[in-house]
Amino acid sequence: MTFRGLAISLVMAFSDFGCGLGSLENRIEYRVLAIVEKFSVPDSSAAGNIRVTMAGLLGRTTAYSFSEIVSQRKDTLFEFAVYGRYVEEDGKSYEVRDIRFDTTLVLSLSPPRTKMHYFRIVGANGEFSDSSFVYQ
Fold first, then answer.
1. Beta bridge partners of 87
2. pTM recorded for the entire structure
3. Residue-wise pLDDT tens digits, 101-123
4. Which pLDDT belongs to residue 24?
């Protein structure tokens, strides 16, 4: 399964709402892959304290919000993707402003290994990589 394959899943929900008026309320909701603006890992890290810093843009209105960080590991490669959520409902107004994310994950290897580890984040604007020599 690829991150890009999960990037957009569109859900449109229609429901009857009201006091017997039978009005139709529209709601649009989907998942978005964030735009990555910063991704870094220190050149060397202790096995119990690997700091992965990532920051970027989820969307350009308040209809966007943070959803989740998905990660997977295969041997010495760690992959990440940051997802936002877009929800638009009839009758609600949304501000035009950047909705950002900025976080540092602290990873711990168990059992600890001593060797180079690789880190990759998949964003809406491409893939970014870094590496760190991990010591015990």
1. 29
2. 0.78
3. 999 999 998 877 778 999 999 99
4. 52
Question: What amino acid is encoded at 34 in this protein?
Answer: A
- Beta-bridge partner residues of 110: none
124 to 2, 37, 84, 132: CA distances (angstroms): 13, 10, 11, 24
Tokens at residue 82, please? Answer: 């940051």
- Strands annotated E in 2-46: 10-17, 23-33, 35-40, 44-46
Distance CA 54, CA 38 (A): 5
Contact present, 34 and 101 (Cβ < 8 Å): yes
Q: Where are the beta strands (DSSP E) in 1-136?
A: 10-17, 23-33, 35-40, 44-46, 50-61, 64-74, 77-89, 96-107, 115-123, 126-135
pLDDT in tens, 54-74: 999 999 999 999 999 999 999
Task: State the Cα torsion 123-125-131-136 to the nearest 10°.
Answer: -20
